[in-house]
C-alpha cells in the first residue's frame, strides 16, 4: 500500500483556518475536515491530491492506492487539497493526455523538489548559494513568534541577498500569478501583511542590506541603502563615517524600507518624523519585476510611494537624507494626569511638545501620571555615551513580569500592581553608559544621536518578547488640537470600566505611548492634511495614541476585560477623525476607520498602484480593506 504522509495545521490556529476558508480559496480547493483523534474515510477523491497545508505538529496519513477512496487519520481539524481538474472525469483520450501531462508534471515536481533541497527553489535563474528557502504553506509569524501571524498562510519564504535576485523572484512569481510580499523583520502586530492567498511568497529582505554612496557637504547629504538595511545598521555605519540620521526614525531593529512602506514615524511636531519624509529617491520593483527609479517631487507617484503599504512593489533601494553626526540629551519629568488633561487649568499639549526635536508622553492611567520625555541637541564636544534601551530585559525581570501579568488575566488588581512597578522603573533613565554598560541613574543623559534617540539592546540581555512578554496594540492618530479631548475620552472609558467593577490599566512596561507627528503629505500617511468627508484640521500635526497591552500566555490568551479594548477602539473611531497606523491595528480597526480616510486620496493612490502593479501581485489585506486592489 502506498502511503503519503503529510501534515496539517494544529487545531489552535483558528485564524489560519479562517484564512483557508475564504471564498476564493474554497473556490480553488477542496477542504476535508478531519476532527482531532478520529479517522475518516472520504470517497470519490482523486488519487493525485496535492496537500496544501502542513505543519510539524500534526499529521494525516493518506492511503493513495485507490483512486476512489482516501483514508485520512489525523489530529488536525482540516486537511486541504487542490481541487482536482475537471478534465480528469472526461473521455479516455483526454484522460490519457492528462495522465501524460501529470507524469511530466510529476517529473518536474521531482526536479523542483531537488532544486528546493539544494536551496535554489522555484526560480532557476537564482544562485543556489545566495537564496535560502522555507517551503510549504506555513504561517509567517511576526517578531512575536508562534501564535502571532503576520500572514496566515504563505507557500515559500525566499531570502535573497541582492537586488537582482529580488527582481528575478518577482519576475518569475508574477509571470505565474503568484502573490508576493516583502518582509523586513516582521516587526508588526497583526495578520495584515499578506492577503489570505496561501500561494503567497515572502521575499525576506534582511540579507539585501548594503549601505553606500555617502555624500556629506556642509553638514547635510545623503546615503544609499538597500531594502533590508535596518536603522541600527545604517546608524552605526553613518556614525563610523561622521554622519547621522535625523529624526525620521522608528524604534527597534526595523528595516528603513519597511518603515517607509508603512508610513512609520518617530515623535516630533517640530521636525520631520515620518521616515519617508527623509527619502529622496527610491528604486521599486514593480509587478512585472522591473526596477523603477523615482525621485522626490510633487507627483501622485511620490505621494503614493511615501506610504505605499508595499502595494506598488518592493522598495529595493532608498536614497536617504542624512546630516553630520550630532549629540543629544534626553530628559524626563513626571506630570499629574489632571494637569495634562487640562483639569487643573490650561495645558496646551502642542505648546509643551513642539519646542523639542522629539518628545513624547507615557501615560500611566492607574497611577494617574504621565512621563514627559524630551530630547534636544547639545554641542558635539559634550561628554556622555548614553545608550537607550526600550526592550532589554534580564531573565529575572522577564520571568517576574510575566508571572505577575499573567495573574492579571482574570483579576484587575495584579495589573495595577504591575503598572505601579513599571511606572517606578520607567521613572529612572532606561539608559546605560555605552562603554561601561553601567546604568545611568539621573536625568538628563547625553550621548551620540542614535544611541540616545533609539539605542538598542544592552549586552547580554534579550528583548522582552523573548521572555514570552507579548503585546497587542492599538495606534490611532488624531489632530493634535483634538489630542487632549481624545485623552479625556479615554479617561472616561477607564472610569466606566472601574465603575463596572472591571478596572483596566496599562500593562506594558512603558505604559501608553503618546507620540506626535509634524504634517507630512502622502496619500495614505497618518499626518497628511488632506481630508475628505470627515473634516478636521491636521495643520498643526497629529497626536498618536499607541496603547500596547500584555497578552497573557495562559488560558485562551484573552486580556482582562477584553471587550473593553474593542469598545475603546470603536468609541475613538466614531467620535474622532482618527487614522490608523498601518501595522499596529487589526483588520476590524481598518474596516471601522476607513470612513475617516479621504476617498480622493485613496482613489489617486489606487491609480498609481495600478500603474505599478496592474495584476495585484503585491496584494495585502490592508489594500483589500481600503479598497485599492480593484
Ligand atoms: C518593537 C517595535 C517597535 C516599533 N516602533 C515603531 C515606532 O516607533 N514608530 C512606528 O511608526 N512604528 C513602529 N513599529 C512598527 C514598524 O515600524 C513597522 O511595522 C515597520 O513596517 C516594520 O518594518 P519591518 O522592516 O520589520 O517590516 P515587516 O514587518 O516585515 O513588514 C511590514 C510591512 O511592510 C511591508 N514591507 C516590508 N519591507 C518592504 C519593502 N522593502 N518594500 C515594500 N514593502 C515592504 C511588508 O510587506 C508589510 O506589509 C514598531 C514595531 C515593533 C515591533
TrEMBL record:
What's one GO-annotated cellular component?
A: membrane
Q: Where are the transmembrane segments?
A: 98-123
Keyword Transport on entry? no
Question: Which is a Pfam family this sequence falls into?
Answer: FAD_binding_4
Q: In which pathway does it act?
A: Cofactor biosynthesis; D-erythroascorbate biosynthesis; dehydro-D-arabinono-1,4-lactone from D-arabinose: step 2/2
Q: Name one GO molecular function term.
A: D-arabinono-1,4-lactone oxidase activity
Can you give the residue ranges of the FAD-binding PCMH-type domain?
Answer: 150-325
Name the top EC class. Answer: oxidoreductase
For this entry, the protein name equals D-arabinono-1,4-lactone oxidase
Q: Which InterPro entries match?
A: ALO_C, FAD-bd_PCMH, FAD-bd_PCMH-like_sf, FAD-bd_PCMH_sub1, FAD-bd_PCMH_sub2, FAD_lactone_oxidase-like, Oxid_FAD_bind_N
Please give the SUPFAM superfamilies that the UniProt record associates with this protein. FAD-binding/transporter-associated domain-like
Cite the entry's keywords alphabetically: Membrane, Oxidoreductase, Transmembrane, Transmembrane helix
Keyword Transmembrane helix part of the UniProt annotation: yes
User: Which Enzyme Commission number(s) are listed?
Assistant: 1.1.3.37
Amino acid at each position: 500500500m502506498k502511503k503519503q504522509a503529510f501534515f496539517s495545521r494544529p487545531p489552535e490556529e483558528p485564524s489560519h483556518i479562517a484564512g483557508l476558508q475564504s471564498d476564493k480559496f474554497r473556490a480553488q480547493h477542496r477542504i476535508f475536515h478531519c476532527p482531532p483523534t478520529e479517522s475518516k474515510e472520504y470517497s470519490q477523491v482523486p488519487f493525485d491530491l496535492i496537500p496544501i497545508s502542513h505543519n510539524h505538529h500534526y499529521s494525516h496519513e493518506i492511503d493513495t492506492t485507490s483512486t476512489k477512496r482516501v483514508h485520512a487519520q489525523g489530529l488536525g481539524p482540516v486537511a486541504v487539497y487542490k481541487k482536482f481538474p475537471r478534465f480528469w472525469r472526461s473521455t479516455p483520450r483526454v484522460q490519457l493526455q492528462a495522465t501524460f501531462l501529470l507524469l511530466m508534471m510529476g517529473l518536474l515536481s521531482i526536479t523542483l523538489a531537488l532544486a528546493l533541497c539544494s536551496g535554489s527553489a522555484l526560480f532557476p535563474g537564482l544562485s543556489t548559494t545566495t537564496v535560502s528557502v522555507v517551503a510549504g504553506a506555513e504561517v509567517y509569524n511576526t517578531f512575536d513568534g508562534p501564535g502571532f501571524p503576520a500572514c496566515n498562510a504563505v507557500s515559500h519564504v525566499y531570502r535573497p541577498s541582492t537586488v537582482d535576485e529580488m527582481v528575478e523572484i518577482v519576475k518569475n512569481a508574477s509571470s505565474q500569478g503568484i502573490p508576493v510580499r516583502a518582509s523586513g523583520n516582521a516587526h508588526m502586530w497583526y495578520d495584515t501583511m499578506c492577503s489570505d492567498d496561501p500561494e503567497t511568497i515572502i521575499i525576506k529582505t534582511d540579507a539585501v542590506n548594503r549601505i553606500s554612496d555617502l555624500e556629506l557637504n556642509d553638514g547635510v547629504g545623503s546615503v544609499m541603502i538597500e531594502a533590508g538595511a535596518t536603522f541600527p545598521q545604517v546608524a552605526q555605519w553613518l556614525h563610523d563615517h561622521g554622519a547621522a540620521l535625523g529624526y525620521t526614525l522608528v524604534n527597534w531593529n526595523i528595516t528603513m524600507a519597511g518603515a517607509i512602506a508603512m508610513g512609520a514615524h518617530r515623535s516630533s511636531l517640530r521636525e520631520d518624523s515620518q521616515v519617508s519624509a527623509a527619502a529622496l529617491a527610491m528604486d521599486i520593483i514593480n509587478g512585472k519585476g522591473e526596477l523603477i527609479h523615482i525621485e522626490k517631487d510633487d507627483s501622485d507617484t511620490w505621494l503614493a510611494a511615501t506610504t505605499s503599504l508595499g502595494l506598488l512593489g518592493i522598495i529595493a533601494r532608498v536614497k536617504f537624507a542624512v546630516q553630520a553626526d550630532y549629540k543629544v540629551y534626553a530628559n524626563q519629568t513626571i506630570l499629574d494626569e489632571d494637569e495634562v488633561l487640562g483639569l487643573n487649568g490650561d495645558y496646551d499639549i502642542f505648546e509643551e511638545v513642539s519646542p523639542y526635536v522629539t518628545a513624547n508622553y507615557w501615560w500611566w492611567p492607574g497611577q494617574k501620571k504621565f512621563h514627559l520625555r524630551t530630547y534636544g541637541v547639545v554641542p558635539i564636544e559634550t561628554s556622555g555615551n548614553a545608550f537607550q534601551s526600550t526592550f532589554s530585559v534580564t531573565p529575572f525581570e522577564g520571568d517576574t513580569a510575566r508571572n505577575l501579568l499573567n495573574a492579571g488575566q482574570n483579576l484587575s488588581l495584579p495589573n495595577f500592581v504591575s503598572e505601579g512597578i513599571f511606572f517606578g522603573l520607567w521613572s529612572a533613565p532606561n539608559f546605560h553608559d555605552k562603554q561601561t554598560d553601567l546604568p545611568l541613574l539621573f536625568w538628563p543623559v547625553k550621548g551620540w544621536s542614535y544611541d540616545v534617540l533609539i539605542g538598542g539592546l544592552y549586552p547580554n540581555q534579550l528583548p522582552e518578547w523573548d521572555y514570552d512578554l507579548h503585546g497587542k496594540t492599538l495606534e490611532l492618530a488624531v489632530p493634535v488640537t483634538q489630542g487632549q479631548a481624545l485623552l479625556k475620552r479615554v479617561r472616561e472609558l477607564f472610569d466606566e470600566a472601574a465603575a463596572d467593577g472591571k478596572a483596566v490599566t496599562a500593562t506594558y512596561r512603558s505604559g501608553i505611548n503618546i507620540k506626535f507627528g509634524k504634517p507630512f503629505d502622502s496619500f495614505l500617511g497618518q499626518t497628511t492634511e488632506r481630508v475628505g468627508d470627515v473634516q478636521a484640521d491636521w495643520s498643526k500635526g497629529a497626536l498618536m495614541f499607541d496603547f500596547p497591552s500584555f497578552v497573557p500566555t495562559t488560558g485562551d490568551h484573552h486580556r482582562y476585560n477584553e471587550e473593553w479594548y474593542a469598545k475603546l477602539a470603536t468609541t475613538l473611531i466614531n467620535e474622532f477623525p482618527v487614522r490608523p497606523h498601518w501595522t499596529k491595528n487589526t483588520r476590524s480597526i481598518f474596516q471601522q476607520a476607513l470612513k475617516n480616510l479621504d476617498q480622493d486620496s485613496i482613489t489617486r493612490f489606487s491609480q498609481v498602484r495600478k500603474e505599478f502593479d496592474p495584476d495585484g501581485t503585491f496584494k495585502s489585506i490592508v489594500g483589500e480593506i481600503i479598497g485599492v486592489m480593484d
